[in-house]
Design a protein that fits this description.
There is one protein chain. It contains 13 helices and 13 strands. It has helices spanning 13-22, 58-64, 86-107, 146-164, 186-191, 211-222, 245-252, 261-273, 281-289, 296-302, 310-321, 328-341, 354-366; strands at 3-8, 28-35, 47-50, 69-72, 113-119, 169-175, 177-179, 196-199, 205-206, 208-210, 233-237, 243-244, 256-259. The protein has a 7-stranded parallel sheet with strand order 3-2-1-4-5-6-11, with helices on both faces. Strands 7-10 form a two-stranded parallel sheet. The radius of gyration is 22 Å and the shape is globular. 40% of the residues are buried.
């Protein structure tokens, strides 16, 4: 018999995709999907159990199916659906739900592997942060609230669980901002706005990871380690390269509106009140100071290399969410036409417009 894997958060598209991918693994004999409501998408041959991980009954599910691998994906920054309870319900699921799940895993002798879907938001975003975080970098400014604070608390409980159950292989995957057709995040909602409000005077550095790479690294962490690799530990997961917020806006075709911080706070409250997007204080700090992490540890120890770079991930997201008010091709054409009206500069190669030079510079910066 192969292993039995329990996956939480399967009502979300990303959880459903991961379940369907797991079913194709030769070493997996069964997959149990858990969520508070039935998923709208298919789970193929997986068994769905409607359960709330905030309740002790989750322990009965582990025992009934003799689960040996738990993949905890029910950590999110947004409600499951409109009317899903708002931020309070999300926090309860993130923190209280994880506590109950870890308590159930501690009492379940069959559990031998635990994978946690976390976030690089645990590092925070502050003006005195290091240029690049790695897994051992001490955090200078802990997140004060929101999903990032939930993730910090969750990782603390996970470390306690690892001390109490040293026989369980524990893997914590800190994902950069996930973008893709199955992505549900405040940043994805922000990038879908027709106009992007930005903080005046700041152009933060950002990293993304495609949801295809998320599925692949979760599959890798849930399985037995390959030769020369180790699937236990804490790993940063992000696509190669870095993009500035201004570059992201151009690639998405979204005009930006630089605003002073008080005006953004007022505008964010308006957007939140009408349910457009959740501009939390955590997201405002990200849009001010940004965040970049190293991923060499995941390559060297886990044996994982993302297939898509940060720039490729954003481009794929742009194609999925449609053209913005300023399609990049039209912007480049307009810039070139304007540049052609200006007096020529000596040394400029024939036929090279301003937009062409700008795109070439961005490619060099994207790596």
């Amino acid at each position: 018999m192969g292993k039995v894997v329990l996956v939480t958060g399967v009502a979300r598209p990303l959880g459903g995709r991961f379940v369907r991918r797991l079913l194709r693994e030769p070493g997996v004999s069964g997959v149990v999907g858990v969520d508070t409501r039935p998923p709208a998408h298919r789970l193929d041959g997986a068994r769905f159990v409607q359960a709330d991980i905030r309740q002790p009954a989750i322990g009965k599910v582990l025992a009934e199916y003799a689960v040996d691998t738990v993949v905890h994906m029910d950590l999110h920054g947004t409600p499951l659906a409109p009317g899903g309870g708002g931020r309070g319900a999300v926090k309860e699921t993130n923190v209280i739900g994880t506590m109950q799940l870890l308590g159930a895993c501690q009492k379940a002798p069959s559990v031998s592997r635990l994978v946690i879907k976390s976030t690089t938001s645990v590092y925070g975003s502050a003006p005195r942060d290091p240029a690049v975080f790695d897994e051992t970098t001490p955090v200078r400014s802990l997140p004060g609230g929101g999903f990032a604070k939930d993730a910090v608390e969750v990782e603390g409980y996970v470390r306690g669980f690892a001390r109490r159950r040293p026989d369980v292989a524990v893997t914590v995957l800190r994902f950069a901002h996930i973008l893709g057709p199955a992505a549900e995040s405040p940043l994805a909602e922000y990038f879908s706005l027709p106009v992007l409000p930005t903080v005046l005077g700041y152009d933060p550095r950002l990293q993304f990871v495609h949801d295809d790479d998320v599925i692949e690294v979760l599959r890798l962490a849930a399985g037995e380690p390959r030769a020369g690799t180790l699937t236990a530990g804490t790993f940063n997961i992000a696509g190669d390269g870095v993009l500035l917020l201004s570059q992201c806006a151009r690639r998405l075709g979204r005009p930006t509106v630089p605003m002073l911080m008080p005006a953004i706070r007022w505008g964010s409250g308006m957007l939140r009140s009408v349910g457009v997007t959740d501009f939390s204080a955590e997201q405002l700090r990200l849009l001010t100071h940004g965040r970049v992490v190293r991923t060499e540890h995941a390559r060297d120890v886990l044996g994982f290399t993302p297939r898509r770079t940060t720039a490729q991930t954003l481009d794929a997201f742009a194609r999925s969410c449609g053209s913005g008010l300023l399609p990049p091709g039209k912007v480049a054409h307009a810039v070139d036409r304007f540049a052609a009206l200006l007096p020529g500069k000596p040394g400029r190669p024939a036929g090279e417009g301003a937009a062409t030079r700008r795109e070439r510079a961005e490619v060099r910066q994207d790596g």
